[in-house]
Every structure is written in C-alpha cells, then in structure tokens.
Amino acid sequence: MTIMTGSRNIVILTGAGVSAESGIDTFRDAGGLWEKHRVEDVATPEAFARDPELVLRFYDMRRKAIQTKQPNAAHEALARLDREWDGDLLIVTQNVDDLHERAGARNVLHMHGTHLNAWCTACDVRSRWTGTLIERPPCPDCGEPALRPDVVWFGEMPYEMERIYTALRSADLFVSIGTSGAVYPAAGFVRDARNLGVETLELNLEPSQGSHWFDEARHGPASQIVPSWVDELLGG
Ligand code: BV8
C-alpha cells in the first residue's frame, strides 16, 4: 500500500539507525557499554556538574569518531530527496553527527544539537568545534574556559520545537527513519502527526516502540529501504 502519492510537504525524523551502517554506534548498541555508564547517565546536566571530565571525555571520543565516518546510502538518498522534491521537506534529526549535511542535505534540523559545536556557558555563544574539550580550552568569543558540548542532554529542552510543530502542522506525510521511539518528545511526533491527520510511515530495521502508531511500516537496513522509498517517491 503506497500512502505517499500526492504527498506535498514531508517531515522526516531520523535517529541513530540511519547512521548505524556508517559505523556510528546506536544508543541501543552503546547503551551501558561506555565505561560502564548508561548514556542516560552521562548525557545529563547533572552528570556534567558531577563529573565534567567523564562527560567531556565521552563527547571528545564521539566527536573524534564521527569525523572518520562517511555518509551511507540512506543519507545520500535523503539528500537526493531534499534536492529533487518539489514540495516542502524538513529532515529533523535526533543525531548529533553531520552525515546528513555531508551527504548534501540542506534542510536539516538538529533537535538534539551537534557534536561539531561547542557552547560557551559563560557567553552563550556556539562555535564550530572539531577538537577536544577535556583540556577546558578558552571560548573563541569570550576567552572563558567554559565550553560544553552543544548537545541536548536528558532533561534539557530540545532545539527548535516550535519550528518542528509548525512543519508538522503543514505536512502531508511524516516519516520516521532509524529510531527506536524511546526518547521524547521526538517519540511523540508520530502521534502529533496522526492527530493532525498526517499520513505516517516508519522505515526501521525492526518495529520501533511506536510502530503500531504508523499507517505503514517497512523494516530492513536503512541503506536499502530508504533509497528504495526515495526512488518510489521520485518515480525511480
Ligand atoms: C525533555 C543527544 C523536557 C545526546 C539525546 C522519565 C525520566 C526522565 C526523563 C524522562 C522520563 N520520561 C520522559 C523523559 C524525558 C526524556 C526521555 O524521553 N527519556 C527517555 C529515556 C524515557 N527526554 C528528555 O529529557 C528530552 N528533553 O524532555 O525536556 C523539558 C521541558 C521543559 C523544559 C526543559 C526540559 C531530551 C532528550 C534528548 C536527549 N539527548 N541525544 C547524545 O547524543 O549524546 S537522546 C539520544 O538518544 C538520541 O538523540 C536519540 O534521541 C536517543 C536514541 O534514540 P535513537 O536515535 O532512536 O537510537 P536508538 O539506539 O534508541 O535506536 C536506534 C534504532 O535504529 C533502533 O530502532 C534500531 O532498530 C534501528 N536501527 C539500527 N540499525 C539500523 C536501524 N534502522 C535502520 N537501519 C539500520 N542499519
């Protein structure tokens, strides 16, 4: 059953599963494996206040790792859709890597921030940052040694929520790709979409926690099912 015919405005939500085949661990894989800490225990403001070195090392390690990874066919297909789709398209990603952008996508919204920015807790300025933060380097703007990862931790408000809901309100189709549906508010977007009368599609390796909320679900590796979906949408 193809529900996409006639879709004009599309909102796509991506999660760690879209970057899995690029060699970036998903949270389900990494959960609990990192220095015996659950991600939820190191990705919080409380953890940063309690043990800043632990948290900064966690993010330094991941920031370094993503710079050695390449976009995969799923990122490439979504970038092609972004280029060729004649309606509105917004890619809302929970991921803090830059693989969507490196594949060429332009309409990308990082609702949980990005590994490649540092955020100064003294002057609030965000700067592009590809190095480490463990040595507490000076903020490029104010010089204070007050930089933290520009990443939304558990208990912090995700970025640009109003822009996301505005896009959902004018969407015809909501597509969730490579996410377990475990983390809110992202996991609730499918229900928001349904309440707005928006068609919903899940593309994931396996049924997510919210799979039953979707009008249609296709399961398999993103590098296979996303390109075939985009081909279908763009007419091959
Ligand atoms: C907020 C950045 C409110 C950091 C992330 C109870 C207690 C405490 C808190 C809560 C609670 N109930 C609800 C909450 C709120 C909490 C939450 O949802 N907690 C969960 C654990 C219950 N949410 C928050 O705290 C959010 N903020 O609510 O603020 C507020 C209100 C007012 C004022 C202030 C605040 C903030 C959440 C953001 C946290 N930051 N990331 C970092 O990256 O280090 S979350 C992080 O985990 C990711 O960004 C992502 O969102 C989430 C992991 O999810 P996925 O991306 O889905 O990854 P996962 O590994 O889980 O799944 C991968 C999927 O891919 C799987 O389904 C798998 O099958 C599939 N897959 C694997 N391989 C492939 C594949 N699919 C296709 N192809 C493949 N090859």
Summarize this entry quickly.
With 236 residues, this protein is α/β, with parallel strands linked by helices. The chain is built from nine helices and nine strands.
Describe the protein:
The protein is built from nine helices and nine strands. The chain has 236 residues and is of the alpha/beta class. It has a six-stranded parallel beta sheet, sandwiched between helices. The structure holds ligand BV8. The site of ligand BV8 has 34 residues, from α1.
Question: Can you lay out the helices and strands and say which pair or pack?
Answer:
Blueprint: E1 10-14, H1 27-30, H2 39-42, H3 45-50, H4 52-66, H5 73-84, E2 89-93, H6 99-102, E3 108-110, E4 113-120, E5 126-128, E6 147-151, H7 161-169, E7 173-177, H8 189-195, E8 199-204, E9 216-219, H9 222-234
Parallel strand pairs: 1-2, 1-7, 2-3, 7-8, 8-9
Antiparallel strand pairs: 4-5, 4-6
The structure holds ligand BV8.
Ligand BV8 is lined by residues 15-17, 20-21, 26-28, 40, 43, 94, 96, 112, 151-158, 178-180, 182-184, 186, 204-206, 208, 221-222.
